[in-house]
Design a protein that fits this description.
By secondary structure, the chain is an alpha+beta fold. It contains 5 helices and 7 strands. The protein folds into 4 domains: about 60 residues, no CATH class; about 40 residues; about 45 residues, no CATH class; about 50 residues. Helices cover about 35% and strands about 15% of the residues. Strands 1-2-3 form a 3-stranded antiparallel sheet, with no helix packed on it. The protein is elongated.
Amino acid sequence: MCVFQQDKVLVSFIPKWNKAVILVSSMHDSGVMDEVTKKPEIILDYNMTKGGMDTCDKMCALYSVSRVTRQWPLAVFYILMNIAVIDSWVIYTINTPSDELQCRILFLKNLSLSLMKEHLVSRSQIPSLPRDVSTFLEKYRPLPVEDDGDGIAGRPPKKWGISFICGRQKNSSASMKCDQCNQFICKQHSKKQIICANCGDVNIITSSECE
């Protein structure tokens, strides 16, 4: 019995009593039967190339990412992952013939770490992690960006701030910065060159004089 849908065909074949073989193919588009063996064409093509499938199944069973699950979509996903890993290893081996042949277990380890690297980098920046986890993720933590004096590392510079001479009690906001110490300074405590009173050659104005 054959079922067709667009460019796919589903075949259910019973070679002997109490045994059914079901195959899905995207290469065949007809249910042609062989006159000699009385078998569908899709069955004959599978028998000619099943050696590769058996080898793939054996490699998947040797190093598998599958876990015990009752959800069939997850089981299919595990099978696709196993096959994709084997395909990537074959492609890598063919594209790098000059490199030393890498064993598959080492390739799997490097591949898994490279797939997890983005997540490990983002997780390593969480400050509330347990000590053992934070120690393990230390090698994935990005190096701190040096502050150029125009703001906190990794953040855009502030456009407004509190004048550091007036202090937070006065809450005097300022948009100018001292050309020497690069701190926010109000107009009252700045010179024409936008230099604060501490950096300039003038007397320091106390907070009581700001009133």
